[in-house]
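Journal club side-thread
Mid-discussion, someone asked how the predicted structure for our own chain would compare to the paper's figures. Pasting it here so we can look after the session.
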Amino acid sequence: MRFQLISMFLLGALLAPAQIEFPPKKKEKDDPTIRIVQGTVRDASDQFAPAAVVQIKNMKTLQIRSFITKEDGKFMFNNLARDVDYEVKAEGKGFVSAAKTVSTFDDRKVAVVNLKLDTAKPDSKSEKK
């Protein structure tokens, strides 16, 4: 009898955690406060620009994050707050793109920003003279 009680207690202890249900984890996709900024970088001849450096600047904190484009010129920034304006620009092979803004008024979950490297990068040595 004692053995049966101990066996039933142990069996109950083992099965009890299996019956506890935890709420599903909130996925990034479902979070209404988070956005993604993605796009491509092309050079002046409209070809994809691999290894271009894309920077995104949080206009509230002035924090800058960088991404180096893939062979297809693509970039992506995740986990961005929707209540902040961002400035996005690219640089590569001696050229820079115009800066583009992703505004808080833009309500897209995934904002697509395509950049074009069409302006020669100023030579930093000539600026110091």
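Post-session note: The longest strand covers residues 34-43.
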